[in-house]
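Design a sequence for this backbone.
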């Protein structure tokens, strides 16, 4: 699941290598108006990255998933503070 965000984020930052891969695997046919499979896959990769599919429930789920890392950081920092720093402060005061 995290790999999907990593790949889609890499695509959003470095689009040229992904487009070159699509062009290599399926060269552009000027006479056809059908979208290439690679272009469709890249469009879905973008939809997955931003949660732009299946309506608002998925967007809410993506927001929750996006808030999990900061919450884990804060709770981990509080646990570390209570375990290490607070004990050291008590020892210094004694």
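Sequence:
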């Amino acid at each position: 699941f995290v790999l999907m965000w990593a790949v889609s984020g890499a695509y959003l930052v470095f689009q040229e290598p992904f487009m070159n891969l699509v062009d290599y695997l399926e060269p552009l046919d000027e006479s056809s108006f059908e979208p290439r499979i690679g272009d469709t896959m890249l469009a879905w990769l973008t939809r997955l990255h931003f949660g732009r599919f299946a309506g608002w429930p998925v967007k809410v789920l993506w927001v929750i998933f996006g808030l999990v890392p900061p919450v884990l950081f804060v709770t981990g920092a509080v646990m570390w503070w209570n375990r290490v720093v607070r004990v050291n402060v008590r020892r210094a005061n004694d």
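The first helix runs from residue 2 to 13.
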